[in-house]
Specification:
- This protein is of the alpha/beta class and 291 residues long.
- It has helices spanning 10-20, 60-76, 106-116, 145-153, 170-179, 222-233, 250-258, 280-288; strands at residues 2-5, 24-25, 28-31, 37-40, 49-53, 81-85, 120-124, 139-142, 161-164, 183-191, 197-201, 210-218, 238-246, 263-267, 275-277.
- The chain has a seven-stranded mixed beta sheet with strand order 11-10-9-12-13-14-15. The protein has a six-stranded parallel beta sheet with strand order 2-1-5-6-7-8, with helices on both faces. Strands 3-4 form a two-stranded antiparallel sheet.
- The longest helix has 17 residues, at 60-76.
- It is elongated, with a radius of gyration of 20 Å.
- Bound molecules: ribose-5-phosphate (R5P).
- The site of ribose-5-phosphate has 10 residues, from strand 12 and helix 6.
């Protein structure tokens, strides 16, 4: 087995290779003068199981094209089996039509990954499991919730509440909370008067308690900032954020911290300065177990 490190996920690829105790190959990646991407794998891959690790966050289109070219090159070199490990897959939030004529993109991207040479596909905390149905190859959607919970447990939070931003995140927060044996809940909107609606935890009081807002992805930070404002009004002691995919700009991160978040704890599905938790163990474990 050999790990190929895409340019979007060099640290994660190295961590996966270390976990699997196998060699890692850094592809030759450069640009032609007009900006076109050039990819080369200088290795003998004949008969090998090749694991390509490449997320598809910003610059999304470049990272996606690079993934296709890496898959193609590995197959061309005679790899026996190619695992496309895409810890963060773009367009997994665009899997349904809102207006006629929109391109959801998801179906096309999944088919292109398969057509470019993937024999199986591995991702982490894909928001909609429905996206997986676009593949006809074996596909695995791992979750980082236990890893995030184990990290949070080390923080020795005071009477923690693990909180989801809506009812849809309940299972996610339950998994995280289980790792630190904490209470968990989610935010609901309540109509106070004809004109006034409040948002608050469905069951629990958060006053004087450390609260961890959990989500699969942070993008514009809108949901987190709004939830933080609510929790501060309800006198939460400290507010943390834990997410799998930190798809945030530095400006967004500063806004989140300014709103009152103590720290953002994310994983390295997107390599970022908030990536305090690595998903390498669950990726390596899945590969070792042959999925
Ligand atoms: C929503 O379904 C997701 O779980 C996230 O809450 C959302 O995508 C985060 O987006 P933003 O950071 O832009 O609020």
């Amino acid at each position: 087995m050999i790990i190929i490190a895409g340019s979007a996920s060099p640290k994660l690829a190295s961590r996966v290779a270390k976990q699997l105790k196998c060699p890692i190959l850094n592809p030759e990646i450069k640009r032609f003068p007009d900006g076109e991407l050039y990819v080369r794998l200088d290795a003998k891959l004949e008969g090998k199981h090749v694991v390509i690790v490449q997320s598809t966050h910003h610059p999304q289109n470049d990272n996606l094209i690079e993934l296709f070219l890496l898959l193609d090159a590995a197959k061309d070199l005679g790899a026996r089996h190619v695992t496309a490990t895409v810890p963060y897959l773009i367009s997994s939030r665009q899997d349904k039509l809102f207006k006629p004529g929109e391109s959801t993109g998801t179906h096309t991207i999944c088919k292109l990954i398969e057509h470019a040479g993937a024999d199986d596909f591995l991702t982490v905390d894909m928001q909609n499991d429905r996206v997986i149905q676009n593949f006809s190859i074996p596909t695995y959607n791992l979750t980082a919730t236990s890893l995030l919970g184990q990290y949070l447990d080390k923080l020795k939070l005071q009477d923690p509440v693990i909180l989801g931003i809506d009812q849809g995140s309940l299972e996610r927060v339950r998994r995280v909370a289980a790792e630190l044996n904490a209470n968990y809940d989610y935010l609901v909107k309540r109509k106070v008067t004809q004109k006034k609606i409040t948002t608050q935890p469905k069951h629990l009081e958060v006053a004087k308690r450390d609260v961890v807002l959990v989500d699969d992805i942070i993008s514009t930070g809108g949901n987190i900032i709004e939830a933080t404002r609510i929790l501060r009004r309800q006198r939460a002691r400290k507010i943390y954020v834990a997410c799998t995919h930190p798809a945030v700009t530095e400006d967004t991160l500063q806004k989140i911290l300014k709103a009152g978040v103590q720290s953002v704890i994310a994983t390295d599905t997107i390599e970022h300065r908030t990536s305090l938790v690595s998903v390498a163990p669950i990726i390596a474990g899945a590969i070792q177990q042959g999925f």
